[in-house]
Give the backbone structure.
Amino acid sequence: MQAHQLRPPKGATHARKRVGRGNASGTGTFAGKGGKGQTERSGKKPRRHFEGGQTPLMRRLPSKRGFVSPFRVEYTPVNLRDLDRFEAGAEITPETLKAAGIVSSARNPVKLLGDGELDRKLTVRVHKFSTVAKEKVEAAGGTIEEITTDGNGK
């Protein structure tokens, strides 16, 4: 066998598509190039996501705005009125708050807020507290301590 006798196997090659040879051929009129105008011409195409001057989809959709710090610590708020269910002299920690059903998770840091009144002596250990809450706990004869946290606030 010689080089000029080599042929590709049957079905491996296809006939060249002859465009623009009438509508009966299936590629008449616009020759498979779509409509008339910018997209039919050769050369530079419009930029990605360009919608012909219509307001682009990404500008039509409402978008997130502003900045959210990835280092933000989300505290679980607990008010003084929530501590009414504990007996006098009790020690309040995130674990006891979780056991009492006041907070959903003891893993998140807790902040004590001053909404409500406190009429019993309690020892409160939380991650943060407001100045009003501290004054009210100390006025009731209790003590309040801040739990130190690692860099992630936990």
